[in-house]
Write a structure and sequence with these properties.
7-stranded antiparallel β-sheet
Length: 633
């Protein structure tokens, strides 16, 4: 909107106020939304939601990897199946709702981590915090008197703490003797703000320090105007320049910064992992193809039965190679325990790449081949009966293996045999293949997954020739349009059971079909995940960062030294605080620091001259034989 269009709104009564209120409302809503999205609670909730959203992808068959299983599931669940399909439950990881959760989690992690990284950087550059006022408030503390000077005590404590891996900040109080114009102020009137404000005109700061305390009092002082400054006579006893002395107060030490570093590394690794997943999703691809023994597959788009790729994929990314399936070796358990369980799947293949000699290789489950940056996996296998179909003219209308898809663990398989070029009528057959045929109370079925007694059961369809349209058809299902199922004279469908080496003549001279032999097929998956190495590396780094975060113990230790009121020496106090509850070792660390300062944790001098020590009742008792307190940073 132009400025001239805003003028009537702003000039109206209350217009500018309403405009400012609307702008504030919008900016406040955006700030609230961003703060909510980048909060740790939201990030954890989205991470949990992403895990829950992944569950259907594990329980239900997924169309990119198991389209046959999806078709079977939809057929078995006609009521709920179509609704789940519309909601994307058969392609969970490619659905819109899963991508939305993924992107929200990515943004939440980014917005949450950046401020924490900045805060951690500032914490690394900052000194440990100031000494607390009362050590007696800490559950683990000790105090005592030593004949050593305050400086020597602090030197020993600092050496001990640095050797244990602590960052040390040594505090001192700078004091100066009061001049003739200073005003005496009681010590109990002092205050100790962390960041005192600068004195106003006409005020002066006086610092009065008791042992271990800091005081700051702002006192008013009359200030003369510059043009009327009275002459001041020289004092009879001129004030000598103040001699500044440095009085040691104590030590504040801290360690455990690696805990937050490990936490940040863990979250950064999660972000990198999401980037790797997105990289693979955008530029990766995945395709599957069924290859029968004696046939070969070339890595081109037209050779894939199914293919999916990201928006950044280009066909030129496909490496050039050819895989020929020479033989597929399979073994099943024949013993009384787990009868029929798979024991061995191995494909003997011949790999041909440009500029190289053909190479004999073996392909097994979980042992893929790496060819030109692509991985070739073995996904499944089945049977392909070899049949020959002759038409009514006696000509061969089709001859070769036909892929049948397994339907159960005993490899009962369904398939369709099509002979569209048969004349005078085109022929088609719906078949069921039984590797180990058995007839019992359950009917005709397969009793074992291996081909011990193979049998092919078929029924027959015929119809007038069909014009070729170039429209692709599903080779695993039969389009019955224009076809009629053949029936016997009693009205029952024409059915036949064939064993290897047998044939069946169709009624009315329509032709014949023979079961010539049996081959195996295997399903190959060719895929490329360009971000896979990034995902794997980020997962390992995340585990390392999480381990460091769980093992590190952020801890603070304090030492305060005061000159003894009587008899010389120094009064020493030590205390400690763990920033994470439930971690052991703090009493021992405090006791070790007390020993380094020259006092015994039980409150006596190390030379054996006992001194009463004030310790609150109910506090944790320190160990009589403490360890040295040196723990990992």
């Amino acid at each position: 909107m132009a400025d001239t269009e805003l003028e009537p709104v702003l000039d109206a009564p209350g217009g500018r106020e309403r405009m400012n209120r609307a702008r504030g409302l919008r900016s406040g809503t955006l700030r609230w939304a961003w703060a909510t999205l980048t909060s740790m609670r939201t990030a954890l909730g989205l991470l949990l939601l992403l895990g829950l959203a992944s569950i259907p992808g594990s329980l239900l068959p997924q169309r990119p990897t198991n389209p046959f299983g999806v078709a079977t599931w939809l057929e078995d669940h006609p009521d709920i199946g179509p609704w789940l399909d519309r909601l994307g439950f058969f392609d969970v990881f490619g659905s819109v709702w899963f991508s939305a959760i993924y992107l929200l989690l990515f943004g939440s992690l980014i917005g949450c981590i950046i401020p924490r990284c900045a805060a951690f950087y500032r914490a690394l550059r900052a000194q440990p915090g100031p000494l607390p006022r009362r050590f007696s408030r800490f559950p683990d503390h000790a105090s005592g008197r030593t004949d050593t000077s305050a400086a020597a005590v602090l030197d020993a404590a600092e050496a001990h703490l640095r050797e244990a891996g602590y960052r040390v900040h040594r505090e001192t109080a700078e004091t100066s003797p009061p001049t003739a114009r200073d005003v005496a102020v009681p010590a109990d009137a002092t205050a100790a703000p962390e960041s005192p404000a600068a004195p106003a005109e006409g005020e002066r700061v006086v610092s009065l320090v008791e042992p271990g305390e800091r005081g700051r009092v702002v006192l008013p002082v009359e200030v003369a105007e510059p043009d009327s400054v009275p002459e001041v006579a020289a004092p009879e006893s001129p004030v000598q320049p103040a001699e500044v002395s440095s009085t040691p107060l104590g030590i504040s030490a801290e360690r455990g910064y690696l805990r937050e570093a490990g936490n940040l590394v863990f979250h950064l690794a999660l972000v990198v992992m999401l980037v790797g997943l997105a990289w693979s999703s955008l530029f990766g691809y995945k395709g599957t193809a069924i290859v029968v023994e004696g046939q070969a597959f070339s890595d081109t788009l037209t050779q894939f039965d199914e293919f999916s790729a990201g928006v950044g994929f280009r066909p030129s990314q496909l490496p050039a190679f050819t895989i020929g399936l020479d033989r597929f070796e399979v073994q099943f358990e024949t013993g009384p325990t787990q009868t029929g369980a798979a024991r061995l799947f191995r494909a003997h293949v011949t790999v041909t790449e440009p500029g190289r000699q053909p190479e004999q290789r073996q392909l097994e489950v979980n042992a893929p081949l790496s060819l030109g940056g692509a991985d070739v996996h073995l996904l499944g296998h089945g049977y392909a009966p070899v049949v020959t179909v002759r038409d009514g003219n006696g000509d061969i209308a089709y001859s070769g293996p036909v892929v049948f898809l397994p339907q159960d663990t005993n490899f009962t398989s369904n398939g369709v045999i099509k002979a569209p070029d048969a004349r005078p009528e085109r022929l088609a057959f719906e078949g069921v293949f039984l590797p180990t045929a058995q007839i019992d109370a359950q009917g005709m079925r397969s009793a074992f997954p291996d081909a011990l007694r193979p049998q092919l059961l078929i029924n027959v369809w015929a119809g007038p020739p069909k014009d070729e349209t170039g429209v692709p058809e599903n080779i695993y299902t039969l389009d019955q349009t224009g076809l009629t199922q053949l029936v016997r004279s009693d009205g029952q469908p024409v059915r036949a059971g064939l064993e290897p080496g047998t044939s069946f003549d169709l009624p009315d001279g329509r032709g014949s079909i023979s079961f010539d032999g049996l081959r195996r097929w295997t399903k190959l998956q060719v895929s490329a995940n360009p971000g896979g190495w990034l995902v794997l590396g980020s997962v390992l780094v995340a585990i390392a960062g999480l381990t460091v975060s769980l093992l590190m113990r952020p801890r603070r230790l304090f030492v305060r030294v005061r000159p003894a009121a009587e008899g010389g020496g120094s009064d020493v106090e030590v205390a400690g605080l763990d920033r994470v509850d439930g971690r052991p070792g703090l009493p021992e660390a405090v006791a070790a620091l007390a020993l380094a300062c020259g006092i015994d944790p039980d409150g006596s001098r190390l030379d054996g001259r006992s001194t009463p020590v004030s310790r609150p009742d109910g506090r944790a008792t320190l160990s009589d034989t403490p360890s040295d307190g040196r723990e990992g940073n």
